[in-house]
Amino acid sequence: MDDKKPVLYLVLPCYNESETIEYSSGKVRDKLNRLIEMGTISPFSKAMFVDDGSKDDTLSKLHELSASDPMFAVVALSSNRGHQNAIMAGMMVAKDHADIVVTIDADLQQDIEALDEFIARFREGNDVVYGIRNDRKSDGPLKKMTASCFYGLMHMMGADIMTNHADYRLMSKKALEMLSEYEETNLFLRGLIPTMGFNSDVVYFDVKEREYGRSKYTARKMLSLAFDGITSMSIRPLQIISLIGFIIFLISIALGIFTLVEYFKGNNIPGYTTSIFVSLLMGGVTLVSLGVMGEYIGKIYMETKHRPRYMIDSVVIKGTENEEK
For residues 167 and 190, is the Cβ–Cβ distance under 8 A? Predict the structure, then answer.
């Protein structure tokens, strides 16, 4: 890695984060200024907030912020497209201006002081650096349980993701250019980016208590993300269905042989309970199987439409390196 100071863009997705903007922007400004003064990053580095169709006054506050300080850029999506799409939109805009892009949540629960280590790993020749949280002490009991279930389910279903890695990561321009070639509608960045094969490393960080507002990442959204991740990165659910079908087929053959043997022995088996049990079992297995296959078919249906993953309503970036040139 050469001695050129890289242009860093922080991408911070926002959805109804009006209460946190003032706090987060102050922390980000302070951190970026310190990195610039140390000569770690270029003076053209910026923090890019991505508004994911917020219903409150988040966007108006972001525009005020960018108007008062060119260090802040704003990307506004035309509607709420979800956390993964908001991150993708920010990265795709930032890659045209930055040498490295770091995604981090707007509430800054992820330790922004870890940026020094991220950049150090990049200078060592890594195009992707993953942030891994040390523990879950800051989470409540429900959050810990859902997170544990999330990662357990993802691993069990064959999605190759890093435990306790959310979306706090660094990517180089080269990695971002490659990511832009992926056109799938159903985004699961935590599973997608590791498949790209670039040199990578990890940075461990502590998670802080949320200063303002409350988390928008509900248990329902985490469950939805898990389903998206599984169906986007693995066909194991379909393989499980095939296995269950094969097992039921073997059981049915065994029951058939048993019934024939008992019939020729002259035993009269009423079979009411068995019939009800088998009917309910087969009905349940059939419905679950149809549901799983329906999820995959639905994903295929959405992919074939080739609709854009997001619509950018406006972009505000001032004082870029290209403008100076």
Answer: yes
Domain ranges of the chain: 8-216+309-324, 236-305
Instruction: Please report which helix (H) or strand (E) contains residue 204, including its range.
Output: strand 200-205
pLDDT, position 138: 53
Output the pTM of the full model: 0.76
Distance (Å, whole) CA 191 – CA 182 = 13
Residue in the block written with tokens 């050129």 = 4
Which backbone phi and psi does 144 adopt, to 5 degrees? Answer: -60, -40
Q: How far apart are CA 134 and CA 193, in angstroms?
A: 21
Cβ atoms within 10 Å, residue 2: 6
Instruction: Compute the distance between CA of residue 58 and CA of residue 73 in angstroms, rounded to an integer.
Output: 14
Q: For residue 30, what are its two tokens? A: 């302070």
Q: At how many degrees (to 10) do helices 141-156 and 219-233 cross? A: 10
If one counts every other C-beta atom within 10 angstroms of the C-beta of residue 190, the result is: 21
Give the Cα separation of 233 and 161 in Å (integer): 10
Contact 109, 208 (CB under 8 A): yes
Residue identified by tokens 């004082």 is: 319
Which residue did the predictor score with more confidence, 78 or 219?
Answer: 78
- Is the pLDDT at 10 greater than 90? The verdict is yes
* Structure tokens belonging to residue 176: 């971002």
Q: How far is CA 137 from the centre of its chain?
A: 21
pLDDT score recorded for residue 215 = 60
Q: What is the mean pLDDT of residues 93-115?
A: 92
Fold of 8-216+309-324: Spore Coat Polysaccharide Biosynthesis Protein SpsA; Chain A (3.90.550)
Q: In what order do the strands lie in the sheet with 128-133?
A: 200-205, 128-133, 169-172, 100-103, 8-14, 46-51, 72-77, 312-316
pLDDT of residue 273: 57
